Amino acid sequence: MENELADSNGFLTKWLICGPKLNIPEIVVEEEIQEKFESKMREAIPDDNFTVPMNIYLDETCSGQNWKYWYGGNGIFVDISNFYRLICRVEFYGATQIKSSEACELQLCLWCYPATDVWVNGEKVLTHEAAVYKPMRRAQTSIKLKKGINDIFVRCQNLGVRDTRNIYGMQLIGELSGIENILPDKDGNIRQLTEAADWLDSLKLKEAHLLFAKSAPPVPCTIEMYTELPHKSGKNTICISAPWENGSSYDFAEGYKGVKVIIFLHGQSLVRSFEIMENEKPVYQKVSGTIAEHRKNVIALTGELKKKIDSDNPMDTGVYYVLARMATNGGFISEDDKAILLHDLDFVDACSDCSDFALSALLRLFMTYDVEDQELQERMKQVVLRFRYWMDEEGSDGMCFWSENHTLLFHGCQMVAGLLYPNEIFSRSGRTGIEMNLLGNKRCSEWLDIVEKKGFEEFLSAGYMCVTAAAILELVDFADEIVQKRAEALLIKLLEQLSRHALNGSTIGPMGRVYREVIIPHKQEIQAIIHYINPEAPQMFTAWLAPFATSHFVIPDHLTDLMKSQVSTVYNSGNAEICLVKTDNYLLSSVSSPRSEEELKSSMTLFEPGLYGYQQHMWYAALDNDCIAFINHPGATNDESEMRPGYWYGNGLMPALMQKGRILGGIYHLDQKRHPVNFTHLYWPSFSLEEEVLEGNWLFGRKGKGYLAIWSSVQGKPFDDVLSGCEYRFVSECSAFICMTGSKQEDGEFTDFMLKAKNLNPVFALDGMSLEAGGEYHLVYVPTKQKEKFV
Questions:
Q1: CA 160 – CA 150 distance, rounded (Å)
Q2: 87 close to 19: Cβ distance less than 8 angstroms
Q3: pLDDT (tens digit, 9 = 90+) per residue, 721-771?
Q4: Over the stretch 363-395, which tens digit does the pLDDT of each residue have?
Q5: 406: closest CA among 35, 722, 20?
Q6: pTM as predicted
Q7: Are 86 and 398 in contact (CB under 8 A)?
Q8: Helices 355-368 and 335-349: crossing angle, nearest 10°?
Q9: Helix axes 355-368, 404-420, angle to 10 degrees
Q10: Is the CB of residue 597 less than 8 Å from the CB of residue 676?
Q11: N-to-C CA span, the chain
Q12: What is the rounded average pLDDT of the residues 445-455?
């Protein structure tokens, strides 16, 4: 059993959990700045009114809720994170046991986001007093274990606001021989659940349609096969559900993009998920008709995607789909669409997070079309006049005001709302509509001042460039003439940036903010904009296209040619220095870390070696829009974690990174006292490559006439989680890598390219943290001196 703790780097991974318990916090905090308001709320959330419960067993109760078995797959954290659209107080508990062959003393290290208390054998040994949004905090103490069974209890208290990380991990440091992580089991149910979890962990996916296990299922289980991967709502399209009762393998039909294996046991479900990347191919439409006809058809298809609200998803809204339908049906609102609009107005009225998203579209709808329905008119006026348009207005809530896209949406909504109701009084500010319009217009102009000067903070963002484009369209259509012209020029610049980074019709590049869609560029939301511009690009749809269909903005004709152009450039956006080399056969693009020039002090997002990362994607190498590679330091050890940074997106700790033409190098230093994940990993597209070679510490790949080579100072170990055959892990505190792209035109045959790459003879000197390659490439890891920002 000691091997289990060694394999998990000392983390306790067997837990019973209870909760979360949610309630409205009875706290009054006076603070105008939203970020400071939430920080003070987090400080005020914890209380000491608690007694560790007795009789902790499966299905026994604690604070009115049952204890459940925690199945975290390959994870080292207990992770019950969630998204809360309205502010609430979150409390949950964890319990486990440590069995020791002898009395001993160990170091206990706690990693957490919530305010957390830890008890060992009924004695409180550690308190982490304040909850945080980011980054994860660490606390350490010495604990004395008695011979035999030692009880561990954890209490977590958090502020639920937007994306909230209800996460903790507990690590033992010291001599772990004779130490075993177990769970209390009075009736054998825990043993059965553990056997089921071990069986799920043993599953391997082969040939895109075969599941293998170490044995037949310990109890009958269910296989669910999906034609599409999960959307942001968390819902899949279930195509087939079938039982798996006997045998150690299961053969399901080819062509599915996702599979879930589900065991229902003792009142709870244990689930193992697989995604089949070889079936996630770009979809191309048959090109016919004019560009105008193509774009009208895209909007029509977009309008068909959603005609009802998902009642299980509190964040679901539908106004953009209604707007898309109205753009193609002459402005008609059906009874079903009226119901959607009333639902979205309720959503906005509650000042839920992302209310600005929905309000922006509602305002555009009412400014563009004559809405004759009296109920809609009255409800719209009521909601708009009492909405909270900025942090200086009356009220407290969980809306995010300060990110790049949210800021412009709030200012644009304020401007348009004042235009729609010029003579009314807006209750939270006491301003008239005319005053709101003027102030909103001024704030939009100030936002433009910043972005025109320094570029986009959320540059190339797969999820947020669509939002930002829609927000800019508010200015293009409804701001004063000077702001309109500036907004139009900026939007063209945004679209040019997306187009310049397009390889085979998909935008591929580092990103200021990204989610897990990073592994499928042709399915990212910005793909919908690229497809809307260029019918030859892979199909993708998003409701954020609706503002384009209802705007007078004209998409420039040169963007399609820009997508197909060869590029070699270095440019700045936000605080990022972005390098891009693109040919017909490959793309290599990265953010320099550190920049070659002085940091832009006005930027919120820094790119420096050793800084805590968040959702910044640092680099891509690509041979096609479904054939990409990159290395990152994951925020968690399993793909289904809700951590930000995630498994495939962002970095726990930032690397040193430098690109010279078609060669990119990087150095990571994983300080285990600052971040608990002890490996970096490579996303490698075996499923898409036509030829690949593993030779020592080198990986080589070919697709078409494009070539790719990656060397690591640490030999990579293949690893499968949700994805199979796509990952190599590099377990080391310090490591370096070299990536080189090439083509038949530049390098000759694939074997010639391989020889060229190997002749770089990369050397990583650990004592100086320096990387040399090819005589001309030299990179040194110099830890940042920038001050960290904790939230």
A1: 32
A2: no
A3: 999 999 999 999 999 999 999 999 999 999 999 999 999 999 999 999 999
A4: 999 999 999 999 999 999 999 999 999 999 998
A5: 35
A6: 0.95
A7: yes
A8: 130
A9: 40
A10: no
A11: 38
A12: 96
